[in-house]
Amino acid sequence: MQIEVIEYKGSKVKKKIKQNGAISYSQKGVYLGVDVKTGKQVTTTITAGNLKEIDQKGNRARFDLEKM
Known about the structure:
Mean pLDDT: 94
Order of helices and strands: EEEEH
């Protein structure tokens, strides 16, 4: 497995190239907001097949947190 750190929209994203040639991207520490119940900051790790999916999954996670 080959790992490369790239810059995407001002944040670091890991690009992983697996032995079979499949590519996956992961971004750690994505800030979602403040949890209403606990008052603490919520962060998560997002893994996706391409960079556009990282944006979509991040937006969806923020929406889900606000909805709670």
